[in-house]
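Hi there. Long-time user, first ticket. I'm pasting a complex I've been working with (about 515 residues overall). I'd like to know whether the download I got is complete or cut off, because the file seemed smaller than I expected. Thanks.
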Amino acid sequence: MTAKSVTADRILTALANELKRDVSTLGLNHSLRGDLGLNSLDAIELMFRVEEEFDLSIPDADLQKLVTVGDLVTYIEGRLQPSSPQPVPKRSGTRLAKNAKSKGRRGHV
Amino acid sequence: MVSPIGIGVGRFWKAALEGRSGITAVRGFDDLPLEAYRSQVAGQVLDFNPAGFLDPAQVDRLDRYAQFSLVAAKEAVADSGLRLEKELPHRVGAIVGAGMGAMMMGERELTKLYQDRKPHRVPPNFIPTITLNSASGLVALAHGAKGPNLTISTACSSSAHAIGHALTCIRTGQADVIIAVGADASITPLVFAGFCSLRALSTGFNHDPARASRPFDRARDGFVLGEGAGALILESLPHARKRKARIYAELAGYAGTSEAYHMVIPREDGAEMATTMQLALQDAEVSPVQVDYINAHATSTVRGDEVEVRGIRRVMKAGANRVTVNATKSLIGHTLGAAGAIGTIACAMAIESGLVHPTINYEQPDPDCALPGISADVQERSIKVALVNAFGFGSNNATLVLKKYQ
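Hi, the file is complete. Here it is re-exported in full:
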C-alpha cells in the first residue's frame, strides 16, 4: 500500500507541476481532458514528464486509453510491477543444427 | 505598449516626454564570454513579469515576443473601449508585424537539444510557438478576431507594413476593425552576436548605456538593439463614429517599396526613401508642404540617419527646415519588428497632445544630417499631418501618413 501511494503521489506531483496547480486540487477521478482541460499537446507533455519521472517509455497507443488521473496511476503502477520470469531459451535447436552439419559433412565424405 | 521605458502607453509616453532612456547594460548570456560581444548595451524591458499578465501555460510556453504581443494587444483593445463580443467576428482582424519572431525560444530549445541529446523530448508545443505567425494567431484567439489574420515580416519595417496593410483591409471593406501589433524580443545570444558581427550596433558607449542611442548626433556609432511591442486599433470611420470611439488620429496614407539596392545599406542619396515618402503622401492626398512632423526611422547609424535626412530634404524641399522631427529610437533603441508600431503610437500621441518627445542624446548636430526641427527637448507643435518612417533590412521601406482627426 505504501509503495502504491508513493507512485500515486509522484504522478500527482508531476501533473500538478505540468498544470501549474496545487497538488491538493487534483483527484484520481478527474478526467485529464475534461476536468483538467489538457489538450492533445498538453497530454503529450505530461507523458514526457511521467516518462522522465519513472524512466519509462509510454507508447502513444497506451496514452489514448488513459482518461482519468486514476487510469494514469493504475497504468504506471502496472508498468512498474516486476515482470514475471521468462523461460530460459533451450539450446537443443543449436545442437541439432550442428549435428545436421556434421551429418552433411559425413554425407559428403 | 511594452517598451524599455514603460509597459503601457501612459507610462511610455510620460517617460518619453521626460526624455528617459531605456538603454541598459547587457549583463551577459549564460556563460558566454561577454567580452566577445562588441556592443554591450540594449533597450531591454527589465520589468516585464509575464505572470502578471498571462496565465501559467502562456508564461511557460510562449516566446517573449508573443507574450509582448498579447499584452500590448490587450491594452489596445481595452483602451479602445471596443466590446469585441458585440462585433461580427469576421469583421475584426489581427495583423502582427515581427522581424525576428520567436528566436528566444528557438535558441533555447536548440541549445537544449544539443546539450541533452534527446530529440524525442522536444516539447510538442515547440512548433506552434516557433512558427512565425504564432503571435498573430494568439492575438486572434485571445480576442475572437476571425477577420484578416496575418503576420508581416520585413525586418525593421514589419509593423509599419502591418499597419499599412490593415489600412488596405479596412479601405477595401475586408474588415471594420484591425488589431495591428508590432513586436520583437530577440536580445538573445545568437541574434545579438549576429548584429554585433554585422557592425551595425553602437560599441562606443558600453560604459554609459543611456547615451548609446543618439540618432542624428555627430557621435552616433550604430544602433542599439531593443525589444518591445506596440498595438493599435485601426477602425473604419463609420464604425468608430457609430460607437463614439476615442479617435487619436486618422491613418490617411501608406506606401511600401523596395530599394532593390542592398540588403542592409540604404541608397546613399536618399532618393528611394524620398520616393516612399512621396508615394505615401500621394496616397493620403496631401502635399509635402503640409507635413508638420516626422517620426523618423533614425536608428543612430552613421549612414542611415544621413540618408533619411537627405530623403526628407528631397521630398520636403524648403519645408524640410520647418518640419519637426524626432527619433523614438533615441529613447528605447531599435525594436525591429515593433519599431513601426511604436513610432506610430508616438506619432498619434504627438498629434493628440501637441507635444513631440525629445530626441535624447542630440548634443552635437552633424552637418550631414542636421535639420532645424530635431531637438533634445520636448517641442510643442500643432500637428495636422505627420509621417512615420520605417526602413528595413532587405532594402525595404515603409511610410505611414497620419492626420489630425477633425
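A couple of notes from our side: Chain B touches chain A through eight residues (CB under 8 Å). Chain B is about 35% helix and 15% strand.
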